[in-house]
Amino acid sequence: MEIRKYNRRAWDNEVDKGNEWTLPVNTETINEARLGNWHIKLTPTIPVPREWFPNLKGLEVLCLASGGGQQGPILAAAGAKVTVFDNSPMQLERDNYVAKRDSLDIYTFEGDMADLSFFNESSFDLIVHPVSNNFTPNVLLVWKEAFRVLRKGAALLSGFVNPAIWLFDYDLAERSCILQVKYKLPYSDEADLDEKELKRRIENLEPLEFSHTLEQQIGGQTKAGFVITDMYEDRQSPDKNEPIAIYMATCVATRAIKPI
For the segment 43-79, what is each residue's pLDDT rounded down to a tens digit? Predict the structure, then answer.
């Protein structure tokens, strides 16, 4: 299976289903951002600390695998020059919708988060990369490409899933809040699900996921050349069918700098 092509269709389907990461921000949020009152999220619930951001006025920002009409429009309203790059045409359409509705200048491009060859080296002053790299098989390429297109001294703000969540029988946890170890890490839907369950997910057009080790997520950034300066953990709300979040943080966010 060509994963990128399949997940493009699957995330278009998530837009139709109203996934929370596909719901555009409203005009009130944009107006507040124009006044300097704004925040964005890389992970489910905790806003990114404002001290992680430089002054956004005129800053060239890449929202990487970040379609959905959320982070990009807010940063554009706050004064940044925003490019949104995403695999899903319908996710990008959300950003175009907000841009047209609220008179924002946003550039949108469809593509693979692990291949930024469309952009020249040292093109951006900031990359915002919310939780999404669990939908690509090779996260190391994501970090390598992000490092290439950033200018020296610029920051990469990224969110990713704690790989430990893929240890468990998710369906059992969702039904009964019992956490039972079922899978070895690193995990992928394509390789580790039984044939019946994989077929069901494909027939339902559910995005296929890949866990990445902490060595790949954190060590991968440093191997690409970044210096990690801060991080925090977050978790999805347990009442949103995420029982694992009762017991552990499910996501991590990092701030990394390309050295001068």
Answer: 999 999 999 999 999 999 999 999 999 999 999 999 9
- Count the neighbouring beta carbons within 10 Å of the beta carbon of residue 180: 11
In this structure, the dihedral spanned by the alpha carbons of residues 101, 87, 8 and 139, taken in order and rounded to 10 degrees, is: -140
Give the dihedral of Cα atoms 248, 216, 120, 154; nearest 10 deg: 60
- Looking at the DSSP assignment, which residues form a beta bridge with residue 252? 160, 233
Distance between CA atoms of 254 and 232, rounded to whole angstroms? Answer: 7
Tokens (6 digits) for 75: 């940063």
How many Å apart are CA 145 and CA 113, to the nearest integer?
8
Record the tokens describing residue 73, joined without a space: 């429009």
Q: Is the pLDDT of residue 241 over 90?
A: no
43: domain range? 3-163+212-257
For residue range 206-220, list pLDDT tens digits in order: 999 999 999 999 999
pTM for this entry: 0.96
In a domain, 156, yes or no: yes
Higher pLDDT, 77 or 240: 77
Locate 252 and state its tokens.
């991590």
Q: How far apart are CA 167 and CA 90, in angstroms?
A: 31
**Total residues found in the chain within this entry:** 260
Q: Could you count the other beta carbons within 10 Å of the beta carbon of residue 212?
A: 25
- How many domains, in total, are found in the chain? 1
Query: Can you give the CATH number for the domain in which 150 is found?
Result: 3.40.50.150
**Positions of E strands within the chain:** 60-64, 81-86, 106-110, 124-129, 150-161, 227-234, 251-257
